[in-house]
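Session log. Operator J.P. requested a structure for one protein chain; no other inputs attached. Running the standard single-chain path with token output.
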Amino acid sequence: MFRQSQRSFALSIFGVQDNRRCGIVRPNASGNGVADWETLAMKSILKSFYARIPVIRELRFLSGQVVRELRHLADRLNQIQLQLLQLHATACVKTLDFEVRQYPRYVDTKRLLTYGFQVCSQNAEDGMIQEIFRRIGTTDRTFVEIGVGDGNENNTAFLLAQGWKGYWIDGNPAFLQTIRNRTDLTDECLKCLVCHVTRENAASVLRKLGVPDQFDLLCLDIDQNTYYAWEGLRQFCPRVVLVEYNAVIPPGLDWKARYAPDRVWDGSHNFGASLKAFELFGGQLGYCLVGCDFIGVNAFFVRADLVADKFAAPFTAENHYEPPRYAFLHRRAHPTSILDRQNARIPGPS
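Structure written below.
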């Protein structure tokens, strides 16, 4: 009786109702509800006691303030980040569209740099490709691109939208999802293959897809082994070749990363090959280096029999090299997507 009074007194101090006295007793697994009730009652007592300690109340109040301040700070940091991105984009446009044009190198009409624009390409390759074919004309309007990413951003998606046909190859199947529901991109205009391309299998991969020996454009962008993939395609003779070069390497140095078929890019600058290495190899196959994009990512080669006086000589790495300007990488417009397919044609030579 005395123990029960103690319990009732303790409960009354902390405002906890004695459920046993109210007839609310929940049995535990063994059928005895007393142990469960006492446990719940003790938890309730401790919780109430804990909440009434002045220091605890103050800490809870302060923690709520801290959480609100942190949320406010996070929102403010997001706003600052957005403003910085906008300032960066503005600076990029100012440099690329206005300041660069003050230098004689970049206003030479035989160079490709001032003709660049971006629709689906990562940089200004869309415009530079268009200018090349404006000068030399097109034949079958067929492309092959090895390393197409997700399909929305690459060097041939814009050509595909203009009525070209071609072949997409990548080791990652993400691009298949991009074109899955595009009824305008049928097998008649675009053939695809998920495959890891190496020097040893490059030619057989193209043969498997039915690529002709001669066609208009070959794009190679497989990071680590781009140079060696081109080595494996000697038997093909595209009119224009676009390759990713390693701009960290000075233009006069013939350098190539060590080859291994299963080697992939580790994110460092130890990849691919220098522009000089590509220039020399392209020369062996009968190609001239006619330009690089301003960011220092892609190099453009045109078959020597098509060059004439249409491009800026000499066709050397020293003349056309652009250093790495990766800080200028940005997308000028809305998120990229493959445009609806049309039958537009690039104007011919003027």
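Operator note: The chain is about 40% helix and 10% strand.
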